[in-house]
UniProtKB/TrEMBL annotation:
Signal peptide extent: none
Annotated transmembrane regions: none
Enzyme class: ligase
Residue ranges of every copy of the Acetyl-coenzyme A synthetase N-terminal domain listed in the record: 113-173
Superkingdom of the source species: Eukaryota
Protein name, per record: Acetyl-coenzyme A synthetase
Known EC number: 6.2.1.1
Classification via PANTHER family: ACETYL-COENZYME A SYNTHETASE, ACETYL-COENZYME A SYNTHETASE 1
Gene: A04p021630.1_BraROA
SUPFAM superfamilies in the cross-refs: Acetyl-CoA synthetase-like
């Protein structure tokens, strides 16, 4: 099916002063970062206006600083600011990058950030045009860099950047880098599921393989605007397939290779692809998953709905299964290795308009029809490249590893496109981070000398459960920047990540963004800002976040409310495929004139942003609106709690009650005393109104392979609606659902 898409004010931040040369700041020994509680420093930020509308239930981000698991206690040489019994406020403690790090950073001071951010707000056309000019354009865009309407009261929502500019993202990822002399530089290190299986490709080799696949796609009739579904695991062939589609102007739709046949069929029926790419099987840890069988079932379902796919190109992943054990449909199924290598290693580029579609990415579809988020080419290219460069302080010598799967937006923007647009060396990992043991991540870091490591808080918390020796047995000396993505990272996990994994010397880029935003929206810049554990810090260039109340009124200064964005940015999605009305209704009608993120947010007295989770994850207990992330953070600060997930359930008195699933540190037994201790931790840190009504012991939590907790499953278990659990095929370990059900009354 051919795919097409429907057709500022100044920065809210106040000026800041640099602390790098302040005489009253003490260096923290030999550590790579300097950490100071509020009581020992002059404020590094000018006073922000106090909140005009202060929420009565504003929750400070506090966490116990005593008796935490090894590596998750106080940051080295940090004197806690005591607010009460063993409680410190994260809002008052800053972690500074070292002077050496800042001096070499792309953005090295708050002043430099402010100058760049201010210009991006006051002159977005000039700011982004200057950056866009660093890429190759066959034809430059017209006089109007951006055209937008984000206010449903003024007509249909539309966003366009660099309209009329002609380019190709594959050319900018590969040809441009080869032409610049990077042909012999490693583009990808690939690590297989098993330790002794690996491979690599230089930029020249990657370009050749992309061209071979692109030529094959053209030969079987794939043309500009045609949809191609990719259902592959994390083999090198996955980013190769994405780039090959982009090269010829086809629109790829990557589906996480773990979705069920029904879920895959939904996406096939919606976008009507010309072809599907898959492999026969994959091993994840000790488990073999027969992907081709899932594809066969999905194609059967879609054909009954009137959507047939003529070609199924199948990669022979011989480490997982054999050709003989792979079911085959002659005339439709084709082995990748039998045809693709025969094609020429050069392929002409299909030049496309900046607003031509690049890819479709469907949201998980927890309820109802999945949403087909549509991203276009030019703005997305410029935005992902720029966010990658600055948020990770990228240097040409870096080796970068993002643990996300390309089936999610993180894998699109920060495994494939963002890094390669910068000519980076990327690690691609087929397996799972705790196979064969919990030291696998750090083993890979040492093996490939990874310097930038980007992962999810869920993985961090999962690894925290195990013995520290899995981390400390490995050097990790190559690391210089860490990153977090997917959900708010609770401060105890932040500290463990910083102290133990990063040896208290690696800044953490705790990024907030969404599938819909295309790239980072609120993120630390590692060399510019002091960080607060658990805070996403400040907005990226060109982004103006606002916090609004329930009536859509902007709130200034210290406050909490709904997170919206004023004005567009180049990486914004342009529509929901085939359903522009749903696009407007979901994202632009809740608060007219703004993009509504669906997330709750607090902004502290220093202007730092703290994400409190999805608004639909806010629980209303006896009139108190409580963010689930707040309760989860309090529970996770308990020395015997490894991880927690909180959902709301109906309560006959309070309206809603708080139901907490708690995973304990390895070896800690369940007990009534521990249950009471966990509840008391929440009462002490937040208040009695936030105390969980129920603690449900959880050996594990239902997570996707990327680490996202499937909260809809937890809600169903909590409310005992077990017949409505829905699709659990995307879980990394579906067996945890049965374990949770078995422990429901313990």
């Amino acid at each position: 099916m051919k795919i097409g898409c429907s057709s500022s004010s100044s920065s809210p931040l106040l000026a800041v002063v640099s602390c790098s040369g302040s005489s009253d700041l003490k260096k923290s020994g030999s550590l790579g970062s300097r950490i100071f509680p509020a009581s020992q420093r002059s404020s590094p930020l000018d006073k922000l206006l106090r909140c005009k509308t202060m929420s009565s239930n504003h929750l400070r981000h506090v966490e116990s600083m005593s008796l935490l698991p090894s590596g998750a206690g106080k940051i080295s040489q940090l004197n806690a600011v005591v607010l009460g019994e063993s409680i410190a406020s994260e809002e008052n403690d800053l972690v500074f990058p070292s002077k050496e790090f800042s001096s070499q950073a792309l953005v090295s001071s708050p002043q430099q950030y402010m100058e760049m951010h201010t210009r991006s707000m006051e002159d977005p056309a000039g700011f982004w045009s200057d950056i866009a000019s660093e890429f190759y354009w066959k034809q430059k865009w017209g006089d109007r860099v951006v055209s937008e309407n984000l206010d449903v009261r003024k007509g249909p929502i539309h966003i366009e950047w660099f309209k009329g500019g002609i380019t190709n993202i594959c050319y900018n990822c590969l040809d441009r880098n080869v032409d610049a002399g990077l042909g012999d530089k490693t583009a990808m290190f690939w690590e297989g599921n098993e330790r002794d299986v690996d491979a690599s490709l230089t930029y020249s080799q990657l370009l050749q393989q992309v061209c071979q696949l692109a030529n094959y796609l053209k030969d079987v009739g794939v043309k500009k605007g045609d949809a191609v579904v990719i259902y592959l695991p994390m083999l090198m062939e996955l980013p190769i397939a994405m780039l090959a589609c982009a090269r010829i102007g086809a629109v790829h739709s990557v589906v996480f290779a773990g979705f069920s046949a029904d879920s895959l069929a939904q996406r096939i029926i919606d976008c009507k692809p010309k072809l599907i790419l898959t492999c026969n099987a994959v091993k994840r840890g000790p488990k073999t998953i027969n992907l081709k069988a899932i594809v066969d079932a999905a194609l059967d379902i879609s054909s009954k709905d009137g959507v047939s796919v003529d070609v199924c190109l199948t990669y022979d992943n011989s480490s997982a299964t054999t050709r003989e054990d792979t079911k085959w449909q002659n005339g439709r199924d084709v082995w990748w290795q039998d045809v693709v290598p025969k094609y020429p290693t050069s392929c002409e580029v299909e030049w496309v308009d900046a607003e031509d579609p690049l890819f479709l990415l469907y949201t998980s579809g927890s309820t109802g029809k999945p949403k087909g988020v549509l991203h276009t080419t030019g703005g997305y290219m410029v935005y992902t490249a720029t966010t990658f460069k600055y948020a990770f302080d990228y240097k040409p010598t870096d080796v970068y590893w993002c643990t996300a799967d390309c089936g999610w937006i993180t894998g699109h923007s920060y495994v494939t496109y963002g890094p390669m647009l910068n000519g980076a060396t990327v690690v691609v990992f087929e397996g799972t981070p705790n196979y064969p043991d919990s030291g696998r991540c750090w083993e890979i870091v040492d093996k490939f000398k990874v310097s930038i490591f980007y992962t999810a808080p869920t993985l961090v918390r999962s690894l925290m459960r195990d013995d520290d020796k899995f981390v400390t047995n490995h050097s990790r000396k190559s690391l210089r920047v860490l990153g977090s993505v997917g959900e708010p990272i609770n401060p105890s996990a932040w500290r463990w990540f910083f102290n133990l994994v990063g040896d208290s010397r690696c800044p953490i880029s705790d990024t907030w963004w969404q599938t819909e935003t295309g790239g980072f929206m609120i993120t630390p810049l590692p060399g510019a800002w002091p960080q607060k554990p658990g805070s996403a810090t400040f907005p990226f260039f060109g982004v103006q976040p606002v916090v609004v109340d329930e009536k859509g009124n902007e709130i200034e200064g210290e406050c909490s409310g709904y997170l919206c964005v004023k004005g567009s940015w180049p990486g914004a999605f342009r529509t929901l495929f085939g359903d522009h009305e749903r696009y407007e209704t979901t994202y632009f009608k809740p608060f007219a004139g703004y993009y509504f993120s669906g997330d709750g947010c607090s902004r502290d007295k220093d202007g730092y942003y703290w994400l409190t989770g999805r608004v639909d994850d806010v629980i209303n207990v006896s009139g108190h609106r409580i963010g689930t992330a707040e309760v989860e953070s309090a529970l996770a600060s308990h020395p015997q709690c490894a991880e927690a997930a909180v959902v709301g359930v109906e309560h006959e008195v309070k309206g809603q009650g708080i139901y907490a699933f708690v995973t304990l540190v390895e070896g800690v037994p369940y007990s009534e005393e521990l249950r009471k201790s966990l509840v008391l931790m929440v009462r002490n840190q937040i208040g009695a109104f936030a105390a969980p009504d129920r603690i449900h012991w959880a050996p594990g939590l239902p997570k996707t392979r990327s680490g996202k907790i499937m909260r809809r499953i937890l809600r169903k278990i909590a409310s005992r609606q077990l017949e409505e659990l829905g699709d659990i095929s995307t879980l990394a370990d579906p067996s945890v659902v049965d374990q949770l059900i078995a422990l429901a009354d313990v």
